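Troubleshooting log. The previous structure file for this entry was overwritten by mistake, so regenerating from the original sequence record. Sequence copied from the archived sheet and checked twice against the printout by T.R.
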Amino acid sequence: MSAPAPTPAPTPPRSVPPRVGVWLIGARGSVATTVVAGCAALTAGLRPPTGLVTETPAFAGSGLPALSSLVFGGHDTLDCPLPKRAEQLAAGGVLPPGLPSAVTAELTAADREIRPGGPLPGDTRDEEQLIAAFTADLRAFVRRNGLARAVVVNVASTEPAPAGPALPPSSLYAAAALRAGCPYADFTPSTGLRHPALAGPAAASGLPYAGRDGKTGQTLLRSVLGPMFTQRALDVRAWSGANLLGGGDGAALADPAAAAAKNAGKERVLADTLGTTPEGQVHIDDVPALGDWKTAWDHIAFDGFLGTRMILQTIWQGCDSALAAPLVLDLARLLARAHEHGLSGPRPELAFYFKDPLGDAPSSLADQHTELLRFARRLTVGTGEQR
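Regenerated output below.
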């Protein structure tokens, strides 16, 4: 009598990577919509990861959360559903034709996770009540979706600098992120986490955070050109610029106070890379017809050998949302991994992404990129590191 066939060993369950939340402030804006639609497109293999630095080989072993593991939600004061917003962006050439319909399910799922922001006109809640409400929204998001952690990224329109001690909306959201235990990134020049009242809570939170003001166009170019002039010992006499843009960002920056907040980061890049502040200013003009597209012009007057006077002019024409979205995904993944790795405090290694970075960071884009790659290697070593 033949022996019975051995019972096959049970197939071990497939390991499911932990899910990570990305909570976007301004969740129904152009940048946020492009982030959600773009992540869905990449996950489905519909588009290559162009512009996504964390998808380059240098980050392959860094333990970053997979794009497919990201779950989106956020706060906004607008009520336009994400699928409709995506259709508008496709009509304007921001998203590829047909993409909104291809990722409708993902857009709809993210839209269900968006909660009302504030304060809205007539809102009688005080600062503590608003922070508590925003914190509750974040905690419920994490609990409802079984997330390992969530990262908060502010991609809302630029707000003017506060005139008094009251917390502006960006700082209310930042305070809620700290209270909910979420790493935080200021992708706008708004006050956010830099309000003096949040210095103590941020330091005590044990969370990693980064900012501020995403470096997507004109300032990205300045951070490359500024060091070039310095390294070649060329004397920059004046550096002037102009920005023409539309969309929500253009409308927000039509406010001189908001524009001043935006320009501060641009000026800091020049001062840091040149060692002095040259003559000239950046002018920002709202041109609604341009929609999400931006034209940035720079006029640089410099002296060469024997005082020979020369000029460099540059023109940058790009789509703000398409430039910003991959950076937002990079930052969410890097901060989530930093949190998992036990890192805390401002992350100067992420200066590569910002006009006005936190911490002691170099100003040259090349040096910032070197620090970012060093950070990627650091994230591959061990777990539970505290700093």
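The two ends are 67 Å apart (CA to CA). Archived copy saved in two places this time.
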